[in-house]
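[stage:ingest] chain + small molecule (iron/sulfur cluster)
[stage:ingest] validated
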Amino acid sequence: MKHIYFVSLGCDKNTVNSEALIGALTRAGFGVCTDVLDASAVVINTCGFIREAVQESIDTILEFSEGDAPIVVTGCMVNRYREEILKELPEVAAVVSPNDSSTLVAELCRLLGVEGAVYPRTEDYENRILTTMVGQAYIKIAEGCNHRCTYCTIPAITGDYKSREPESILREAVNLAKRGVREVTVVAQDTSCYGADLSPKTSLAALLTQISGVAGIEWIRVMYAYPDNIDDELINVIRDNPKICHYLDVPIQHASDKVLRLMGRDTTKESLQALFKKLREKITDISIRTTIITGFFGEGKEEFNELLEFVKEVKFDKLGVFEYSEEEGTAALSLGIKAVSEKTREKRKEEIMLAQQSVSGEILRGKVGTTQKVLVESIRADGKYVGRTYADCPELDGNVIFSSDRTLCVGDFEYVKICASDFYDLFGSA
Ligand code: SF4
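[stage:predict] done
[stage:export] tokens:
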């Protein structure tokens, strides 16, 4: 058997893509190894949405080119820079379009002289090989994006929005539950417009309700909801369905109307304020995550202060902030406005992070004395458990560090009395 060393870069959507490709490779008769020295070939599932991610993908290719195993490159960077990869990276033995598992198998068979491989029929998310922590998994419900934010390369990389059929997603959820998954995190470029392109039309709210009917799944979490698509149907389902976490990730990117317009976003400060007010009124313990970009064209001191004040006013539970990255091929580069210096972008990012640090500290202090249901993610050398509450998403948000007299396993739930907090984490005992 030939073994493949698989490298997965980029976002949670790409993690799911990698898991589906790894599943297809194993069904085709390849092994997947954890030590590159055992590998007959290396597959790198790249990310390509911003320069930094492209550079990381190139560095990874060059790093593995020091070995003898042929390198096959797939993923988003292929859709953005296929010709450049073929021309400028001779280290690459083959290039395969994202999510094209049958071509990936064919290229590996060609490179490794393998015959009689079983070729995958379709993209098979339902039987993917999980790479996430025990007890949790992402479910990618759609590909692509119909928005046209001026700074973003994703629509050009992944194409227009295409929802997956609900039946396929449900089969996947049932399969995941059978494999011990208790928490599913629903992802896409924009989860909130799920189902609008299907016939018959359906909605994210309807899909979440269907997933909540799957025995074994206890927590369902929604990421990447576009502000303008968050309607009462969705809010009510999140509020009323006991399996859906009172958690919502709503990337806003900015809060100044001038900058939002230049970003090509359909939202305004007023519509965002109204949305977060409604969410907090209807779901009083909701945990709201967002992401922000600093230093976009048109962001002067006034616009930045507006953003900073907005962060202090809304008090997001979780917040990620990125410096604007000029990307070739995006509409933003033809706005004809002087760029904000990289130094200023960075300084503003730090200012937002500092403001958010005190907001987060204040929110977590409010949880001291409460009892929280915690999903165990790992066990420390000192015997303490590390987990997450409903208010924390995997890989990005904070943790609960706690002790317990019971012997717990990763993937178990435990009720924890919170006795202390810091800026991002909670501490307690079962
Ligand atoms: S919503 Fe905007 S930022 Fe997000 S993937 Fe679509 S175009 Fe990009």
